[in-house]
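Incident log entry.

Two folding requests arrived from the same account within the same minute. Monitoring flagged them as a possible duplicate submission, but the sequences differ. Recording both here for audit purposes.

Request one:
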Amino acid sequence: MTGLTEEQVSFYNKNGYVAPIDIFTPEQAAELRAELESLEASHPDAVVGRNRNNVHYVTPLFDRIAHNSKILDAVQSLIGPNILVGGSTLFIKEPEQKGFISWHQDARYVGLEPYNWVTAWLALSNVTTQNGCMYMWPGSQHDGPREHVDTYGKDNLLTRGQTIMDVPEDITVPIELKPGQLSIHHPWVVHGSGHNLSKERRIGFAIQSYIGADVDSVLGKIYVQQARGVDTHGYHEHTPRLTGLMQDHDVRFRDQANDALKDIFYKGAKKIGKY
């Protein structure tokens, strides 16, 4: 196992994120992107709308990424050797698209406790300030949960448009990545991303989340896959890895998992959003 360096772990513990982490070579990343775009051409509904959630259940591309050993090495440096894949989301911002992600904390609505888990975000394109990269509020994870307002903004890519107000944007840090690079962030770190102002696609795949075996779901049911180690607690129902591209039984299971995820994300909400 290579994993993160001591300096990277220390940076993560202080700031709530670590980036960039080299995972794939530029050539490998280009091949992954080409595979995604071939998938979009052959199965146009596979990775849009609600189907952008849990794409690793139905596409070999994202299954391979979610179980990639170099990513798991980095994650193990932060949460230990018993790692479960708890979900995934594909985030694509098309050229000159108005979609954005408001300031938020992942832990606020996911219901995973204790907080021995991370979100890993892999770039499949250049990710820059011009095309809508993430910004992090360094150290904000140390203050725990913050108040969110459900805006349901039409261009907001979050389920409820959940937003933390009065974030000191002047001290936030852009997370620019090259294709094949990864960022990892803490459940409580405040982060968000802006519009894509460029003429390029911004493509990112988030594993939301890699959880330790000691992490339970307190708001509803989730499904997991064993990524590494053993499940020492048995809190969740395990599911096998996929059998091929968009197989009927895998698609039905993805829809089932997304229904369960919807129940969690909208628990206590006044209305249901588009995701």
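Request two (distinct sequence, not a duplicate):
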Amino acid sequence: MRIVTPAEAVAGIRSGDQIFVQAEAATPTELLNALCTRAPELEDVKIVHLHAEGPAPHMAPEMAGHFRHRALFIGPNARRAVAEGRAEFIPVFLSDVPGLFTRGLVPLDAVFINVTPPDAHGFCSLGTSVDATLTAVRCAKTVIAQVNPALPRTHGSSFVHVSEIDRAIEVNRPPYVHDPGAPGEVERRIADYVADLIPDGATLQMGIGAIPNAVGMALRHKHDLGVHTEMLTDNVVDLVEAGVVTGARKDLDRGKVVATFMMGTQRLYDFADDNPMVEMREVDYTNDTAVIRRFRRMRSINSAIEVDLTGQVCADSIGWRLYSGVGGQMDFVRGAALAEEGLSIIALPSTTSDGRTSRIVCTLKEGAGVVTTRAHVQTVVTEWGVAHLHGRSVSERARALTAIAHPDFRADLDCTARGRHYL
């Protein structure tokens, strides 16, 4: 590993190159900034990553033609660029992303990573984000790193040896933080229903946001829960410290909290730092349905933008407008469904935040993306109750979903369903 200046680190990038950038809380902003200073001399450099935190200078309007983001998941800072055609979206299951690199479908000229300083044996940790980054390191022609003592040193499959790093810069920048805030009454009611579906000894997958935060609060009376998830958040820290999450009854990786990336406050990163209870693993392990189904009482908890009366779940777009991504929802929906006593849960508020639009709908918006099909969905939860859909007919689904819609919209849903002979 050769320590250089930021300008020297990115000097080898050429027009037409394709770069993978480590993402989420570990986004290597200093390397991206250095690359963007070279914009006048570069054309059509493709930058591939998942949801990346931070300012995203490569997606600024003035960078069009110089850099083109290829989103594997659309974060908030990428939505405008995608909507305006300055960036593009690759729909893909999160578990399949490493295979894009190993099979050459997305060849990589370089990878930008954010790592801890090396230990006595020369190993640096990828810190908060392993996901597909470790595979990218193995597949890219050039590996360029930020060596960053502010990152937590995480265990598991998180390590990159200095011999694998071609050039590096030294920085001291804490990982990006995300605070979902306190849940409201709607989220707390949803969480109470979800908690009733989680038995002692269950293994959990949860994401980020007000609903997972509320679910964590609603689980304080449970015992010996385990965690096998793609995203690790502060609510798991709360449950570990409360003695609720022990992993003692996990069927695999017993006693371990397993994730592929983490996003939260500094408290989460301090908890994960050199903590052997936390294992960061590659996403084609955490999100592999063959692995997930081995947890007998697996519970996956995911969200949606809309759910129609047949059970189709839209989670990546608002009509035609691409909004987020496929992510790992289907990985865990299917994996949990295949587990011996498993259950997948889609949890969402019954209306938009202004209360003017139902999120339980007769028909998805034109252009809406179906992330979870009606054949895969098992259980839908709103603040009005639980709809068990697996094995139910369309008419039974329509009745169950109408019953958990907001009362202001139930009559219209019932009328439309009857007009379409769902009822």
